[in-house]
Amino acid sequence: MTDSVLFQTVEWAGNKLKNRMVLAPLTRGRAGPNRVPNKIMGDHYVQRAGAGLIISEATSISEEGNGWVESPGIYSDAMVEGWSSVVSRVHQAGSKMVLQLWHTGRASHSDFHNGELPLSASAIKIEGDEIHTPKGKKEYEVPKAMTVDDIQRTVEDYKKAAANAKAAGFDGIEVHAANGYLINQFIDSRSNQRTDEYGGSLANRYRFLSEVMDAVLSIWPAEQVGVRLSPNGVFNDMGADDYRETFTYVAQQLNKLKIGYLHVMDGLAFGFHERGEPMTLAEFRALFDGVIIGNCGYTQEEAEKRISDGDGDMIAFGRPWITNPDLPERFAHNYPLTAFDDPASWYGKSVEGYNDFKTFDEQSGKSTLEALS
What we know:
The chain contains 12 helices and 14 strands. The chain is of the alpha/beta class. The chain has one domain (about 5-370): Aldolase class I (TIM Barrel, Alpha-Beta Barrel). It is globular.
């Protein structure tokens, strides 16, 4: 087979995961207008159940958190039922799955909210990009700065979403605090210019995430909870000069909670704010005692090195897994990868560009044993 470190088992939350490859959360917009997880979504995850751990696509904690056309939610009974079916099928296929909890914040538009402005830490819009809304492509808007009541309501939404995730049978949850979405908007000093207890100092800018963590940890054991961070990211107009100080502090605070994993987007494939040297997995290893997952643009060789060097425990792969549903098999046997150079069909309403990619055996017409001979 292979002696790659990617195929060593790893312990997480009392589970022995079969390998160190994580299916990264990939927002694909297949849930339909009702945002209820469906069969083709289940088919997609089952096809990729060779992963040691699957992180779901970003999933809205509330209607207020929506900001992506036809992405799924976890705030209704129908959504819980839909996700329950997906998780059951993933378990039958031999993998573990966590739900990523998402609120888009200012990375949304009033078209998603019956004309009401999206929410954020401060009334500062995303510059330089446009958003796909239910009514077409539009410029981002200046969001509404959240009141303390808005913040407390949203913390409660996270708690309810965490409870719904448990009811759906997930093996854990991941709090999405990366990529310029709501929690990241509070953490980052560029998007957070508040003067109350949620802005200014590191402790104040961390306060919203701290309260979210308290809420979800009242539902889930700490070892079954992860957090995603993007210290180097520029996506959704992120990046501040004090990024290293900020994310060092955030990692230290999360470590005190003894959560199960930290999912760090240390790679630069989605862009780098270039406000200094990029933060590395090695830096986070010195700050965090639990499982560390690296992500963003990793090749097999780079992933193996990070694990061999002890900087990370698992590596998440995203785009290569879109077009290669059997990615672990391809890595294990050194099969060629199907290129991921046509994103036009990745986001849509059908199986095209979603569930129609073939395994290596299907492409070659050979069994694994024949392919190896």
